[in-house]
Amino acid sequence: MHRFFVDPENIQGHMAIIDKEEAHHIQKVLRLKAGEQVILFDGSGYEYRARLLEAKQAGLTAQIMERSSKEELSVRVCLVQGIAKGDKMDSIIQKASEIGVAEIYPLVSERTVVRLAGDNAVKKVKRWQHIAREACKQCRRNLIPQVKPVLKMEEVYQEIGEAPALIFYEKEKNQGLRQVLSNIKGEVLAKGRLFVLIGPEGGFSEIEVNRALKQGVQTASLGPRILRTETAGLVASAIIMYEYDL
Fold it and tell me: What is the pLDDT of residue 197?
């Protein structure tokens, strides 16, 4: 059965209005007709079996027949990702959405080449949020990760607050990820969130790592090999979910 996104605000009782973008795909590309059944998901954790009705100016209407939900992870993995060059960020957003990351924070750090600000940053975040939505539609995940506004390093700590956080540093030799996760498991489960900080191409500087340590962030290593920025965050997030059996 085909699957489409519907804004939660467009669901009223047993009726849903599918926006024009999705309606175009339904009617013009897939050529589905009134009376056919589809799956709708609202990005907040719910999905709906619905029957297509008619097109209106605001979009396509559908009658909701059944509502259900799929269990999400008990801990929200929050990926703070140094903005990567080219289309690498698109891929990171897509794959992070697929594996279960809950929040994505695009980061401008000392070695970031792509420095987004103002309208350019707003447009990029909007594009990345759309990529996250499409990834969830494809992989049948009902909760769409939130792509947050672009942050600088000092702003990250305000977002972290009292939650546990890990910064991945290629020069860290003693703190393997598995051991760190074992040490902080109780705190992570109690807080319900874990922040994962990944640098851009070139990683974090020593000054940035030392500042992070002063803020209570712990360093961690992903092993003897230096991973690309588009690989590191996904590997770290997947290991966290596996180790905590999320």
Answer: 98
Q: Which CATH class is domain 3-69?
A: mainly beta
pLDDT above 60 for 246: no
- Residue 109: predicted pLDDT: 94
- For 165, half-sphere exposure in the C-beta direction (CA atoms, 13 angstrom radius) is 23
Q: Angle CA(78)–CA(244)–CA(201) in degrees, nearest 5? A: 40
* First and final C-alpha spacing in the chain: 27
Mean predicted confidence (pLDDT) in 47-71: 87
Domain ranges in the chain with CATH number 3.40.1280.10 = 76-243
Place of tokens 């175009």: 24
Of 153, 160, 177, which is closest to residue 227 (Cα–Cα)? 177
- Alpha-carbon span 220 to 2, nearest angstrom: 41
- Residue type present at position 49: R
The structure's pTM equals: 0.86
Instruction: Tell me which CATH code domain 76-243 carries.
Output: 3.40.1280.10
Residue 129's φ and ψ, nearest 5 degrees, are -65, -35
Domain boundaries for CATH 2.40.240.20 within the chain: 3-69
Looking at the chain, the whole-number percentage of residues with pLDDT higher than 90 is 79
Nearest Cα residue to 4 out of 79, 30, 13: 30
What's the Cα-to-Cα distance from 90 to each of 75, 125, 188, rounded to whole Å?
A: 24, 10, 28
